[in-house]
Amino acid sequence: MVAYFKLQYKMINRKFKDTGITPLFAYVLLTLIFVGLSIYLFRKTEYAQYIYLFFALILIGKLSETQRGEFLKICFGSLQFKKIRILENLICSIPFIFFMLYKHLFITASILFVLIIILALINFRTHINFTIWTPFSKKPFEFVIGFRKTFYLFFIAYFMSIISVFAAENYKVGVFAMIVIFTIILSYYQKPENEYFIWIYNVNAKTFLYRKIKILLQFSTLLILPALVILSVFFHQNIDTFLLTFLIGMAFLILMILGKYSTYPNEINIGFGIIFATCIMFPFLLTIFIPYFFKKAEAQLNTVLE
Q1: How far apart, in whole angstroms, are the C-alpha atoms of residue 148 and residue 144?
Q2: Radius of gyration, alpha carbons of the chain
Q3: What is the pLDDT of residues 196-231, one digit of tens each?
Q4: HSE on the CB side for 133, CA within 13 Å?
Q5: With contact defined as beta carbons under 8 Å apart, do 272 and 16 qualify?
Q6: Taking Cα atoms as reference points, which of 194, 192, 175, 207 lies closest to residue 264?
Q7: How much is the pLDDT for 135?
Q8: C-alpha angle 91/97/102, rounded to 5°?
Q9: Which of the two ends of the chain, N or C, has the fewest CB atoms closer than 10 A to its terminal CB?
Q10: Residue 172 Cα distances to 12, 46, 108, angstroms
Q11: Alpha carbon distance 96, 52 (integer Å)
């Protein structure tokens, strides 16, 4: 078990070094970004503790995939597997728990601690035995595959929008629901696809990126529209806030897709993650980084498309 965590530590350090960042500097920078984002979040909204809990569970949930769990069981056995999963979840959630304790959110921190133990003992299936209909064509495979894995999360987000209107009577809950939807869509672009899915377009890099962005905007709008309409109708006095959230969310989706192809065929690196987190704190930087990563993605894809 100790060897497993040493291996994970070395792999993380190697990813930092591959991006040209020394591990120590990366850990310090990530800590500062995490603390900065946490302080910013708790200053901006009274629902920060629930948003905090939500993102902590998303992070931990990624470690509970069935295939990954089965692999660890084969390598270490059932008993060691449970210990590894508990420690993994605890390590990933420690920053969230410590900050909640610092904010005297003892109940929320306790709930998160209990949930990480429960999630360590269960696995989420990454596939289902029947095909779920999607409102998307076959070309934007990211949405077809992603929607079938996360469709139930959209119903939760839409339900939150309804709650914001009829129960909480607070538009901020609706804004959070929109952020949840954008976060789900962001997850569709984390992994690079096979080169075949790029070759089939038979266009140059710039046209390819424009086409991917167009598809992204079209289908993201389709998914966010139910929540946006509900909130705009019942909180019409806050429609400017919803539209601003919509535009900023779309900008982050564009940045994500450009970041994905800027490192293709490799996965998105730590350097981009740091830039993405910085843009969350300072959204105006999107106007700088979107053109920058467009040029970088175009140059990277030229080697594949031409």
Answers
A1: 6
A2: 20
A3: 777 777 788 888 899 999 989 999 999 999 999 999
A4: 1
A5: no
A6: 192
A7: 66
A8: 135
A9: C
A10: 36, 9, 20
A11: 7
Residue 90 and residue 238: Cα distance in Å, rounded? 39
Residue 12's CB: how many other CB atoms inside 10 A? 14
Structural element, H or E, at residue 260: helix 239-262
Q: What is the full DSSP assignment across 111-180?
A: HHHHHHHHHHT--B-S--SSPPP-SS-SS-HHHHHHHHHHHHHHHHHHHHHHHHHHTS--HHHHHHHHHH
What is the DSSP-derived secondary structure letter of residue 192? P
Query: Quick one: 120 exposed, middle or buried, by C-beta within 10 A (0-12, 13-18, 19+)?
Result: buried
* Helix, coil or strand: residue 212: helix
Sign of CA dihedral 152, 63, 257, 181: positive
In 3D space, the residue among 123, 26, 125 whose CA is nearest the CA of residue 84 turns out to be 123
**Tens digit of each residue's pLDDT (9 = 90 or more) over 39-94:** 887 887 777 787 788 778 777 777 777 777 788 888 888 888 888 888 988 988 89
CA distance 281 to 248: 12
Cα gap 270→260, rounded to integer Å: 12
Q: Give CA–CA dist 144/155, Å, rounded.
A: 16
What's the pTM value of the predicted model, to 2 decimals? Answer: 0.70
Q: Are 251 and 217 in contact (CB under 8 A)?
A: no
127-142 as b/e: b if 16+ CB within 10 A = eeeeeeebebeeebeb
φ, ψ of residue 124 in degrees (nearest 5): -95, 135
Nearest to 257 by CA among 181, 192, 199: 192
Half-sphere exposure of 238 (CA within 13 A, CB side): 19
Q: Are 201 and 306 in contact (CB under 8 A)?
A: no
Residue type, 21: I
